[in-house]
Amino acid sequence: MFSAIFGSVEQGIIYAIMALGVYLSFRVLSFPDLTVDGSFVTGAAVAATMIIFGYHPVFATVVAIVIGFLAGCVTGLLHTKGKINALLSGILMMIALYSINLRIMGLTSENSIGKPNIPLLKAETMFSSSNRFGVL
Q1: Are 117 and 49 in contact (CB under 8 A)?
Q2: What is the C-alpha to C-alpha distance for residues 86 and 55, in angstroms, rounded to an integer?
Q3: What are 96-112's pLDDT values in tens digits?
Q4: What's the predicted TM-score (pTM) here?
Q5: Is 34 helix (H, G, I), strand (E, B) or coil?
Q6: Minimal CA–CA distance to 49: which of 127, 115, 128, 95?
Q7: To the nearest 10°, the Cα dihedral for 57, 59, 65, 71?
Q8: How remote is the C-alpha of 114 from its chain's centroid?
């Protein structure tokens, strides 16, 4: 019972962060940007791939944040330099990122090349490394 509640709260927090990204870009910046729908998953794909390749989870998370930032920059460039409508540039980037995500996740080890799922069950996480030091 507790694990089901914990899992649902965890997913709710993750989706709340994504909703905040959409809300901030739409209400505060008056820019209807849907890039966050694609860049959120791109960050997860980059972080999971880097963790599988043996990078530290904190470093993989930082790189995933930078990749999401770059996706937002490309959306801005499409809008400003390409003279594409704001909503359309976000939709184009979101659709492009779905294909890029599959390509990124296809880079993993030889036993899962080309598969859109990356199992992280045996990978080191921030929580497993903190358990070794008695933090959690």
Answers
A1: no
A2: 36
A3: 998 898 888 877 655 55
A4: 0.75
A5: coil
A6: 115
A7: -110
A8: 19
